[in-house]
């Protein structure tokens, strides 16, 4: 049964739909009107379903535009064909081999280009798809047999049992589809699936929340390619012939359409999309040359009326049961769990005495953008359990300095030390695991995920469960997931957003979005919280509430570094203020020292109006 | 040396076709952030329209005014008809989908591409059509010891002329500035009083129109056309667009010509190169994207974090 903390509320009927559909799939070949021809159609629905699922990992979950997916399909098919016809390796054994070769190829080829942005990645994948096809056609060293393809691929067999009739192939492919769908569903609901979705929503935010974006993107491609390789093997075995004609760009385009038609990230949607794409031309077969015409038209029409797909993915709804909210009292902030857990146990950091050792040291950091010096030899020391504020006019370089500290930029000179260790230039997600979390000036949430999921994402970097535990739902993984949910629920409640837990982040009002981002940052379990203009956009009362909240965090042992423009906040809670102007430090000290410092007044705070005629 | 020169000229010729098609791609992408997969098929449409014009109408014109006017008529006809087609495509397939985001637009574009290709096939038939020989001038020109067909030269100069006009419009006129502004930040452009609908109309009329022109010239140059030829050209043109810097109009032209030259020289000088030339094109594309993603003439646009 497992401790399913996320309850997806389904209607009575809805729960039966998947069972009915799988039931239909299981008995399909034995239905009265179904002859071998239609069993074959059923086979192809399954095959394209598998391909659609493989592309969905890349396109649906992570949001990477892959228009060259047929390349991996082709490599799987050709690996099987070549190794079977030349070395007589059994086809069934080649199933995992094809998957491995395809995924290895994907890893090698995508590594240098995985950082590319959306449309550019799209073009690269188109190029890769075409290059693979061209290589196959040109028959290097005679292994692919050129445009005529390879014939005589054997049938898969376990011992004496050979898969060769249409019905046998039908069940074979659908068994694989069922298995793959199961694995993908488990992944979808795990830490890994959530990380993928976060990357799709906002890469920069994902990286800043502790997700190793590059690794997860490559993982998606590798997995997607492996699954496509599987499909290639099955295709080769069924057709007994492979030729480059089956792997044109149109094939990749078709897969793309299947995923979008069904609904990005929706597994049942993808299978439905595959069914439509395969069955549509069959139904229109009598129109012969016009059927593709109608198909093109159907694609356009679907995008006009159902751009989200026919069975769009629904986000998980977090129910009330499983998390004992009833036991909550408003005054005593206790964490959410069945049974009582005290505050201290849930604190991210043990409160300790005021430490003389600096938590964060920025030493002589300089960053140039071409001729512009954004940050000039900046020194900053942040002591633990205190509030340090960085202030200065707009464009001074404050956010840039934060970006350097959190690893988004590499400084040209200087060092950043955290707890005595050099973290200069460390990748942002690693900086998070060290214990620094941040928010953004322009709020970067994951807009299509629920508030709960947003905060949950913060916990990702503290998790260890990989793919296998996620799919198998090992006790370790279940414990980890439960812990994550509890911590996320705790922080969501702390910032006063518990009632919004199932609301999509983008629907929240601005002020609450700021708190959501802070909750997400806190969920990473930081020692240092870096906030970029947290009070901007908040009114007086909200600002006071924020200040109160930050004081609470201080008591719990979290150190705070702020960029602020609101002098009430700066004066109200800072222990130390550093002033930046045009990339350089112009003053530093306690709030009052800085407030009365002449240079600061001149550059930032402003002097009172002088009467005309007097000297300045 | 003479062979090299000939190849070079061929390369520039082929490149100018790519450039004209690339211009359309680049403009649409720059302004709409949409990879118009149907663009290659609009190119094909243009070449078929030119063919139809020549077969039916040109005979009439040629009798009265000579071969060249027939050619010009075909080009003009394709240009105008394609402009209309482009606008129609935008209205029908893209406009209703803008609010849904980038990915549905890609599917719409793919759908339109499939639709157009099959519509062309349905109207004109699946077999190759040949541009009528008698209606295309075959005079030659002697230049630097080479014998260049006059048609080729005219096509080349026409392409260059059109590109120059496009460059001038986009870079030197006020409307061109409006186009560039819309490409950079559409929302802001509307807030500044730029009629974005006019810009979109312009882009979707002119882009395909240029493609259509290139289609006719391509038909006259290679003489045979087929409904599926748009795909290859579309992809090459897209490569050219990236090479030059996406959204950058002079870049698309430079990219196109460069691509044509590199491709032709590769096919000519590398043994067995012809079969691999498409592969090389894509390899170049990928390398450019890795090492200089903003293209040859593109600018680095940093994302403010």
The CATH architecture of the domain at 38-305 in chain A comes to Orthogonal Bundle
What is the number of beta strands of chain A?
A: 14
State the share of residues found in helices of chain A, binned by percent: 40-55%
- Report the radius of gyration of chain A as a whole number of Å: 29 Å
CATH architecture title of chain B: Orthogonal Bundle
Query: What proportion of the residues of chain A form beta strands (DSSP E)?
Result: 5-15%
Uncertain runs of chain B are none
Topology-level CATH name of the domain at 38-305 in chain A = ABC transporter involved in vitamin B12 uptake, BtuC
- CATH topology assignment of chain B: ABC transporter involved in vitamin B12 uptake, BtuC
Largest sheet of chain A: 6 strands, mixed
How many beta strands in the DSSP annotation of chain B?
A: 4
Distance between the termini of chain A: 78 Å
Query: Number of helical runs of chain A?
Result: 23
Question: Would you mind describing this structure in some detail?
Answer:
The complex is a heterodimer of chains A (616) and B (305). Chain A has 616 residues and is of the alpha/beta class. Among the domains of chain A are: 38-305, ABC transporter involved in vitamin B12 uptake, BtuC, CATH 1.10.3470; 356-434 and 565-605, P-loop containing nucleotide triphosphate hydrolases (Rossmann fold, 3-Layer(aba) Sandwich), CATH 3.40.50. Chain A is 51% helix and 11% strand. Chain A contains 23 helices and 14 strands. In chain A, a hairpin with a 2-residue loop joins strand 5 and strand 6. The longest helix of chain A has 27 residues, at 213-239. Chain A is elongated, with a radius of gyration of 29 Å. The relative contact order of chain A is 0.11. Chain B is mainly alpha-helical. Chain B has one domain: ABC transporter involved in vitamin B12 uptake, BtuC (Orthogonal Bundle). Chain B is 76% helix and 4% strand. Chain B has a two-stranded antiparallel ribbon with strand order 1-4. Chain B is globular, with a radius of gyration of 19 Å. The mean pLDDT of chain B is 82. The interface between A and B is large, with 48 and 50 residues.
